[in-house]
């Protein structure tokens, strides 16, 4: 049996609990509103539909979540041909047509996909390519290399061998390059005291159905990286610059020289 005083106390207790819960909800809603304002300051104004619409400032009110309409998607992701549809959507601006490619890029197919060029129909001809590169050392490191005082040893000799090895690995390093048989490869490194640099030149040759430009470029780039590795303990300010093709002969496109372009 409850007394009158006990009934009043119980009623007061329930009323106080309800009042406290209401204050908690109000505080919680205010905190969410303040958090949304802070997010707008950091990330910009929240779009009308999205995460902001899914959080109510009044947690007692359940909001309906917006349903994503299928027509809003650029593609249908419900069938088994998703990858094909994505490819068609991505490259829909590229005209179809057999051997056509993007602006003469032979490694790009008619639909924009990467491809290794089929050179089986080409004639085998003598092909030569020359490339160059420069490594700017700075005066201090340049003097150390000139005097062969680097801790790792003879910089120029090691870089020369590295360049030759790098050219042999071109088809492994560059995914769509053909694995061709090199008939000649040469890498030369010369110290230039005027700008405290190492000037690197590489020459590659083959008799085959595709050119050796990438082999010559890989040779000088690898040699340049090796010079950097051999000298990096002495300076972090070393720069590898001007990796470029100087000229090539042979092949369907004919001869080309940088100075004659």
UniProtKB/TrEMBL annotation:
Keyword Lyase among UniProt keywords: yes
Q: Which pathway does UniProt place it in?
A: Cofactor biosynthesis; molybdopterin biosynthesis
Enzyme nomenclature, EC number: 4.6.1.17
User: Which keywords fit this entry according to its UniProt record?
Assistant: Lyase, Molybdenum cofactor biosynthesis
Protein's UniProt name: cyclic pyranopterin monophosphate synthase
Gene3D superfamilies, per database record: Molybdopterin cofactor biosynthesis C (MoaC) domain (3.30.70.640)
- The answer to whether keyword Lipoprotein applies is no
Which reactions are catalysed by this chain? (8S)-3',8-cyclo-7,8-dihydroguanosine 5'-triphosphate = cyclic pyranopterin phosphate + diphosphate
The record's listing under Pfam families reads: MoaC (PF01967)
């Amino acid at each position: 049996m409850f007394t009158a005083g006990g009934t009043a106390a119980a009623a007061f207790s329930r009323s106080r609990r309800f009042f406290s819960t209401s204050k908690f909800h109000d505080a919680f809603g205010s905190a969410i509103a303040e958090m949304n304002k802070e997010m707008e300051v950091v990330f910009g104004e929240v779009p009308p539909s999205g995460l902001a619409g899914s959080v109510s400032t009044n947690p007692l009110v359940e909001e309906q979540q917006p349903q994503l309409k299928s027509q809003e998607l650029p593609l249908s992701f419900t069938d088994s041909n998703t990858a094909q549809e994505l490819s068609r959507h991505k490259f829909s601006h590229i005209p179809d047509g057999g051997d056509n490619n993007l602006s003469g890029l032979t490694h790009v197919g008619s639909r924009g996909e990467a491809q290794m060029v089929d050179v089986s129909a080409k004639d085998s001809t003598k092909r030569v390519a020359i490339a160059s590169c420069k490594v700017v050392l700075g005066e201090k490191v340049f003097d150390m290399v000139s005097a062969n005082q680097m801790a790792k040893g003879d910089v120029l000799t090691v870089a020369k061998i590295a360049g030759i090895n790098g050219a042999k690995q071109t088809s492994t390093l560059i995914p769509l390059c053909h694995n061709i048989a090199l008939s000649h490869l040469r890498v030369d490194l010369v110290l230039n005291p005027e700008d405290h640099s190492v000037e690197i030149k590489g020459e590659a040759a083959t008799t085959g159905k595709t050119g050796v430009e990438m082999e010559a470029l890989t040779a000088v780039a690898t040699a340049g990286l090796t010079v950097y590795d051999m000298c990096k303990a002495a300076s972090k300010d070393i720069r590898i610059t001007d990796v470029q093709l100087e000229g090539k002969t042979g092949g369907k496109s004919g001869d080309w020289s940088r100075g004659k372009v």
